């Protein structure tokens, strides 16, 4: 199957394209500052008023901003954080990717394949959407694994072992490979721990950085992956092989930060910075293409579509296969963890 090819000028006028393509450094930097400010505020809330409710709230806020940093890293991979590539890469790497144990340039190489072959047999992100629809029981098991940190732990363990290289390599070669794969990420996280320790809240690193990274971020990353490409109407139509999902205030706060819900618009014009995607959506809704666009009213509506398979089809033998697939999932690399944008 081959996806239909459509040009940017099939959707917007030249003046509109010039407008939405504009990349402004201070706007990209402001979104990064916003993410870190919310993270700092959530940590301060728990330090000031420590109790189970504030902790759970902080984990949800920080996990959503960690996804937000991944989204902004993704903007950097498209060159959208700044018109200057050095500034763009510096912002994306040091303030977005490295704190999450990710890397912009390797993600960029991987991710552009997804844009070129969206929902086709050789789409590297097809594995994220192909299994759907699934049963509610199957999704419940995935949700529990994500929320309890099992998914995040397995992914990070696989990433660590991959960075260490084969056991038969000399120690010096393994050390060099580890630094190449995870060195700046570990350095950035050590600096983050040092800053928190200097502020008198060293415990915030394991409890309010690593825990959200391994739990809530995994939950909403799966929801985002589902919303973007699962159970779409037509894998060959660029207006229908990806999806935009309307998000209310709470969804934007806890599930879909920084305009990630405008995924159809991003795929049509992937060089548009995220803060201009709502404008693209409005222009498309006023165009002749409005009726063809795959748009859902909420993330709950998308999850209903994605879990529409009858529970009777989730038989005991399939539970074993699900467990095997879950174990196989640890082989997903760091790029695919952030994939699907």
TrEMBL record:
InterPro entries attached to this UniProt entry: FA_desaturase_dom, Fatty_acid_desaturase
Keywords: Membrane, Transmembrane, Transmembrane helix
Sequence ranges assigned to domain Fatty acid desaturase in this UniProt record: 51-284
Alphabetical list of CDD domains matching this protein: Rhizobitoxine-FADS-like (cd03510)
Pfam families: FA_desaturase
Coiled coil: none
Positions of transmembrane segments: 29-49, 191-219
Protein's recorded name: Fatty acid desaturase
Organism listed in the record: Bradyrhizobium iriomotense
């Amino acid at each position: 199957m081959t996806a239909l090819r459509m040009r940017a000028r099939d959707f917007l006028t030249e003046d509109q394209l010039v407008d939405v393509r504009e990349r402004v450094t201070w706007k990209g930097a402001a979104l990064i500052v916003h993410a870190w400010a919310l993270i700092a505020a959530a940590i301060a809330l728990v330090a000031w008023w420590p109790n189970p409710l504030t902790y759970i709230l902080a984990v949800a806020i920080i996990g959503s901003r960690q996804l937000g940093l991944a989204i902004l890293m993704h903007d950097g991979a498209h060159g959208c954080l700044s018109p200057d590539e050095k500034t763009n890469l510096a912002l994306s790497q040091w303030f977005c990717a490295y704190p999450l144990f990710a890397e912009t340039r390797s993600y960029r190489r991987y991710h552009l394949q997804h844009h070129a072959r969206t929902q086709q047999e050789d789409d590297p992100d097809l594995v994220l959407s192909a299994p759907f629809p699934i049963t509610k029981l199957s999704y419940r098991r995935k949700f529990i694994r994500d929320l309890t940190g099992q998914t995040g732990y397995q992914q990070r363990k696989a990433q660590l072992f991959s960075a260490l290289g084969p056991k038969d390599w000399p120690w010096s070669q393994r050390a060099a490979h580890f630094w190449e794969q995870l060195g700046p990420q570990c350095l950035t996280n050590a600096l983050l721990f040092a800053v928190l320790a200097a502020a008198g809240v060293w415990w915030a690193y394991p409890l309010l950085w690593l825990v959200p990274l391994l739990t809530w971020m995994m939950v909403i990353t799966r929801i985002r992956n589902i919303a973007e490409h699962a159970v779409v109407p037509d894998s060959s139509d660029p207006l229908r092989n990806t999806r935009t999902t309307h998000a209310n205030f709470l969804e934007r706060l806890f599930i879909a930060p920084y305009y990630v819900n405008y995924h159809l618009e991003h795929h049509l014009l992937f060089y548009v910075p995220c803060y201009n995607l709502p404008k693209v959506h409005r222009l498309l809704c006023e165009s002749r293409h409005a009726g063809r666009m795959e748009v859902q009213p909420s993330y709950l509506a998308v999850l209903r579509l994605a879990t529409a398979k009858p529970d009777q089809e989730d038989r005991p033998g399939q539970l074993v296969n699900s467990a095997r697939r879950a174990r196989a999932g640890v082989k997903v690399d760091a790029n695919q963890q952030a994939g699907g944008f």
